[in-house]
Amino acid sequence: MLKYSQQTLIYTRYFAKVMGRNPTVLIYTIGLPIFFLILNTAGHFFKPLTPIQYAANVAPFISWMIFSSALQAVSAVAILREQGYLKQYQSLVTSPSVILVAETLISFIQLGISITLVGGLSGLVFNLPVLPLLAELWLTLLLSFPAAVCFCLPLLAFSAREKTVDALVNLISIGVVFASFGLAAVMTPAIQNPLFNILSPLFLGSFIFRALVSQIGAYLLTYIISLIVLGIVGYLSYRHLKLLPAEVI
Q1: pTM, two decimal places
Q2: Taking the CB of residue 214, how many other CB atoms lie within 10 A of it?
Q3: What share of the chain is helix, strand, coil (3-state, %, to 5)?
Q4: pLDDT tens across 82-97, in order?
Q5: pLDDT (tens digit, 9 = 90+) per residue, 110-144?
Q6: What does the domain layout of the chain look like in residue ranges?
Q7: What's the DSSP call for residue 31?
Q8: DSSP letter string over 73-140?
Q9: Which of 84, 178, 208, 219 sees the fewest Cβ atoms within 10 Å?
């Protein structure tokens, strides 16, 4: 376990250095979500919101940030595989999961910075107490990010060329949005319904934040069920992880 942790830390630092050499990527991954938050919520600026109103108007965007970061982390591993690096790294680490965990940690750190900035900005423009809001946002991140990663892991269970991976990421992103709207159209979104949480990471993150604000008791069992199901999906997907690029297979 100690060796695994050390290797994870080494590769996390390595991937962080690679990212740090390209400040454009850093600005894109941290700054762009904040820009879109401002763009989408400008109509509510400097109008006091209650926590429940914040959950309805801003939390869905937070959920999208969490899901897209999880998808970015998983797709980064898929691209490493298609470039031939994942198989090379396998000979240097105790388990290929070291690379997955390292990439996931990088995305988590980026997301944590963005969430903190969003919380500070939200406290200012929506007249909300900053520290309680930051605590709720960070709890939402901690509770929903692992589930979102598990939701995205099937991407690693199939071989696909690098360009195809990019196309699949776009397709998954669009599919999740349409699936979320489709579910809401045929059924009333209910915080106690595990189906919404399992099929849509956007509902998952939004419901977690809403539960932390007002309905934690009603949501706890639903969250546990959703986490177990998504955990099984992630485990089975990892068990079928493809290490070789599609061109080699």
Answers
A1: 0.90
A2: 15
A3: 80, 0, 20
A4: 888 888 877 788 888 8
A5: 889 889 988 888 888 888 889 999 999 999 999 99
A6: 2-43+50-239
A7: I
A8: HHHHHHHHHHTTHHHHHHTTSS-THHHHHHHHHHHHHHHHHHHHHHHHHHHHHTT--HHHHHHHHHHH
A9: 178
The pLDDT value recorded for residue 16 is 82
E strand or H helix at 187: none
In angstroms, how far is CA 246 from the centroid of its own chain?
A: 26
Helical H runs in 153-192?
162-186
Q: Which of the 8 DSSP states describes residue 29?
A: I
Cα dihedral value 189, 141, 38, 59, nearest 10: 20
How far is the C-alpha of 56 from the C-alpha of 35, rounded, in Å?
A: 19
- Polymer length in residues for the chain: 249
Query: By mean pLDDT, which of 1-5, 12-16, 24-28 is the weakest?
Result: 24-28
For residues 70 and 106, is the Cβ–Cβ distance under 8 A? Answer: no
CA distances from 46 to 41, 42, 91, 125, 244 (A): 11, 9, 55, 5, 52
Q: Could you tell me which of 96, 89, 93 has the C-alpha nearest to residue 237?
A: 96
211 contacts 219 by C-beta, under 8 angstroms: yes
Residue 47: helix, strand or coil by DSSP?
A: coil
Predicted confidence (pLDDT) at residue 220 exceeds the cutoff of 80: yes
Report the alpha-carbon distance of residue 69 to residue 246 in Å, rounded. Answer: 24
- Interhelix angle 130-152/97-125, rounded to 10 degrees, is 150
